[in-house]
Design brief:
single chain; mainly beta; three-stranded antiparallel beta sheet
């Protein structure tokens, strides 16, 4: 599954702040990771959908979402909160086939590609 975790403040952006975009420093520095943060200069802006939503403690909306159709970014903007995400190639999230990640610090992010279920 194409999933990348990181922290926007910890990534080397050559002092530009751009951790997603057209520049070479947005490319993955590990061969096993796909270049989800890199977009070719001719890429259309709809290649990374983003939305703004506030999740309160024990948010009841923690149900599986539809299959992702493109790259999606989730970033923790809170300085005190935490947010757990689960990913699977299977809509039933079978044991042993789930990648789980918790955004814990201000600026933590996860970006994932298409054909992944998340919840």
């Amino acid at each position: 599954m194409d999933i990348e975790f990181g922290n926007a403040g910890a990534i080397n952006t050559n002092s530009t702040g751009w951790f997603i975009g057209f520049s070479d420093w947005t490319k993955a520095d590990v061969a096993s990771v796909t270049d989800l943060r890199f977009m070719a200069k001719n890429a259309l802006a709809h290649t990374i959908p983003m939305k703004w939503i506030v999740h309160s403690v024990n948010d009841s909306r923690s149900v599986a979402k539809p299959l992702s159709e493109g790259r999606t970014l989730s970033i923790l903007v809170s300085e005190t909160g935490r947010f757990r995400l689960e990913f699977s190639a299977n809509s039933t999230f079978p044991v042993g086939q789930v990648v789980q990640h918790e955004l814990q610090a201000h600026g933590d992010f996860v970006i994932w590609g298409e054909n992944i279920y998340y919840g």
